[in-house]
Protein backbone atom coordinates (compact mmCIF):
# COMPACT_ATOMS: atom_id res chain seq x y z
CA UNK A 1 0.00 0.00 0.00
CA UNK A 2 1.28 3.44 -0.91
CA UNK A 3 0.38 5.98 1.77
CA UNK A 4 0.44 9.63 0.63
CA UNK A 5 1.30 10.77 4.17
CA UNK A 6 4.18 8.30 4.53
CA UNK A 7 5.51 9.30 1.11
CA UNK A 8 4.36 12.89 0.53
CA UNK A 9 4.53 14.07 -3.04
CA UNK A 10 4.58 17.85 -2.74
CA UNK A 11 3.69 19.20 0.68
CA UNK A 12 4.36 22.64 2.10
CA UNK A 13 6.30 21.71 5.25
CA UNK A 14 6.25 24.40 7.94
CA UNK A 15 7.84 22.53 10.86
CA UNK A 16 8.83 19.03 11.94
CA UNK A 17 10.43 17.18 14.80
CA UNK A 18 11.26 13.52 15.37
CA UNK A 19 7.57 12.58 15.79
CA UNK A 20 5.36 14.73 13.61
CA UNK A 21 5.18 17.59 11.14
CA UNK A 22 2.99 20.60 10.44
CA UNK A 23 2.13 21.28 6.82
CA UNK A 24 0.17 24.05 5.16
CA UNK A 25 -2.53 22.89 2.77
CA UNK A 26 -3.02 24.70 -0.54
CA UNK A 27 -6.73 25.58 -0.46
CA UNK A 28 -7.85 28.81 -2.13
CA UNK A 29 -11.10 28.94 -0.10
CA UNK A 30 -9.31 28.24 3.19
CA UNK A 31 -5.82 29.77 3.24
CA UNK A 32 -5.69 29.02 6.96
CA UNK A 33 -5.62 25.24 6.55
CA UNK A 34 -2.90 23.10 8.08
CA UNK A 35 -2.38 19.46 8.98
CA UNK A 36 -0.41 17.91 11.80
CA UNK A 37 0.84 14.52 10.60
CA UNK A 38 2.32 11.78 12.79
CA UNK A 39 5.40 10.36 11.03
CA UNK A 40 4.87 6.67 11.83
CA UNK A 41 2.15 4.92 9.88
CA UNK A 42 -0.54 4.35 12.50
CA UNK A 43 -4.26 4.86 12.07
CA UNK A 44 -5.61 5.83 15.49
CA UNK A 45 -4.70 7.95 18.49
CA UNK A 46 -4.82 4.81 20.64
CA UNK A 47 -1.98 3.34 18.55
CA UNK A 48 0.24 5.86 20.38
CA UNK A 49 1.39 5.60 23.96
CA UNK A 50 0.40 8.31 26.45
CA UNK A 51 3.56 10.39 25.96
CA UNK A 52 3.20 10.27 22.17
CA UNK A 53 -0.48 11.27 22.35
CA UNK A 54 0.44 14.15 24.64
CA UNK A 55 3.17 15.33 22.27
CA UNK A 56 0.91 15.15 19.22
CA UNK A 57 -1.90 17.07 20.89
CA UNK A 58 0.48 19.74 22.19
CA UNK A 59 1.62 20.26 18.57
CA UNK A 60 -2.03 20.43 17.45
CA UNK A 61 -2.78 22.99 20.18
CA UNK A 62 0.29 25.04 19.24
CA UNK A 63 -0.74 25.01 15.57
CA UNK A 64 -4.24 26.10 16.52
CA UNK A 65 -2.85 28.94 18.62
CA UNK A 66 -0.58 30.08 15.79
CA UNK A 67 -3.44 29.97 13.31
CA UNK A 68 -5.69 32.01 15.62
CA UNK A 69 -2.93 34.61 15.92
CA UNK A 70 -2.23 34.82 12.19
CA UNK A 71 -5.68 34.38 10.63
CA UNK A 72 -8.00 35.81 13.33
CA UNK A 73 -10.78 33.37 12.42
CA UNK A 74 -14.29 33.13 13.80
CA UNK A 75 -13.53 29.48 14.61
CA UNK A 76 -10.86 26.82 14.16
CA UNK A 77 -12.14 23.43 13.00
CA UNK A 78 -10.17 20.41 14.21
CA UNK A 79 -10.76 17.00 12.66
CA UNK A 80 -9.05 13.65 12.71
CA UNK A 81 -10.85 11.59 10.12
CA UNK A 82 -8.58 9.23 8.24
CA UNK A 83 -11.38 7.55 6.30
CA UNK A 84 -9.63 8.08 2.97
CA UNK A 85 -6.06 7.98 4.31
CA UNK A 86 -5.81 5.81 7.47
CA UNK A 87 -2.63 7.51 8.67
CA UNK A 88 -2.91 9.55 11.87
CA UNK A 89 -3.23 13.24 11.08
CA UNK A 90 -5.24 16.23 12.25
CA UNK A 91 -6.86 18.85 10.02
CA UNK A 92 -6.82 22.40 11.39
CA UNK A 93 -8.91 24.85 9.41
CA UNK A 94 -9.35 28.54 10.15
CA UNK A 95 -12.98 29.43 9.48
CA UNK A 96 -14.44 32.84 8.76
CA UNK A 97 -18.11 33.80 8.69
CA UNK A 98 -17.69 34.82 5.03
CA UNK A 99 -15.82 31.74 3.77
CA UNK A 100 -17.37 29.65 1.00
CA UNK A 101 -19.10 27.06 3.19
CA UNK A 102 -19.56 28.76 6.59
CA UNK A 103 -21.28 27.71 8.82
CA UNK A 104 -21.25 24.27 7.18
CA UNK A 105 -18.18 21.98 7.16
CA UNK A 106 -15.49 22.84 4.63
CA UNK A 107 -16.40 19.68 2.72
CA UNK A 108 -20.01 20.87 2.21
CA UNK A 109 -21.18 22.50 -1.02
CA UNK A 110 -20.22 26.13 -1.44
CA UNK A 111 -22.78 28.69 -0.32
CA UNK A 112 -20.91 31.66 -1.83
CA UNK A 113 -17.53 32.73 -3.12
CA UNK A 114 -14.99 33.15 -0.35
CA UNK A 115 -14.26 36.72 0.66
CA UNK A 116 -10.73 37.86 -0.15
CA UNK A 117 -8.26 37.68 2.75
CA UNK A 118 -4.91 39.26 3.40
CA UNK A 119 -2.18 36.72 2.73
CA UNK A 120 -0.27 35.23 5.64
CA UNK A 121 3.27 34.28 4.66
CA UNK A 122 4.59 30.86 5.65
CA UNK A 123 7.39 32.56 7.58
CA UNK A 124 4.90 34.53 9.69
CA UNK A 125 2.87 31.40 10.40
CA UNK A 126 6.06 29.50 11.28
CA UNK A 127 7.17 32.25 13.70
CA UNK A 128 3.77 32.13 15.43
CA UNK A 129 3.96 28.32 15.50
CA UNK A 130 7.41 28.33 17.06
CA UNK A 131 6.22 30.79 19.74
CA UNK A 132 3.22 28.57 20.48
CA UNK A 133 5.37 25.41 20.56
CA UNK A 134 7.64 27.08 23.11
CA UNK A 135 4.55 27.84 25.23
CA UNK A 136 3.69 24.13 25.01
CA UNK A 137 7.21 23.20 26.11
CA UNK A 138 8.19 21.74 22.75
CA UNK A 139 11.67 22.36 21.38
CA UNK A 140 11.20 24.34 18.20
CA UNK A 141 14.43 23.18 16.59
CA UNK A 142 13.45 22.17 13.10
CA UNK A 143 14.94 19.01 11.60
Describe the structure.
- The chain is an alpha+beta fold and 143 residues long.
- It has one domain (12-135): HIT family, subunit A, CATH 3.30.428.10.
- Helices cover 25% and strands 20% of the residues.
- A 5-stranded antiparallel beta sheet has the order 1-2-3-5-4, covered by helices on one side.
- Helix 1 crosses helix 2.
- The longest helix is centred in the middle third of the chain and has 22 residues, at 50-71.
- It starts with 11 loop residues before the first strand and ends in an 8-residue tail after the last helix.
Quick rundown:
By secondary structure, this protein is α+β, with helices and mostly antiparallel strands. It contains two helices and five strands, in the order βββαββα. The radius of gyration is 15 Å and the shape is globular.
Number of strands: 5
Low-confidence stretches: none
Strand numbers in spatial order across the main sheet: 1-2-3-5-4
Shape: globular
What is CATH's topology name? HIT family, subunit A
What is the string of SSEs from the N terminus onward?
A: EEEHEEH
> What is the end-to-end distance?
27 Å
CATH top level assignment? Alpha Beta
Q: Compute the number of structural domains.
A: 1
CATH level-four homologous superfamily name: HIT-like
Q: Can you summarize the main beta sheet?
A: 5 strands, antiparallel
Task: Round the Cα radius of gyration to an integer and report it.
Answer: 15 Å
**Beta-strand share of residues:** 15-25%
Amino acid sequence: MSCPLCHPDDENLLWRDAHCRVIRVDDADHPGYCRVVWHAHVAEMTDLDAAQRDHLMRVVFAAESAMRRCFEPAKINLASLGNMVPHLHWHLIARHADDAQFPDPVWAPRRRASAPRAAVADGDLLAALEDALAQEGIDSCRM
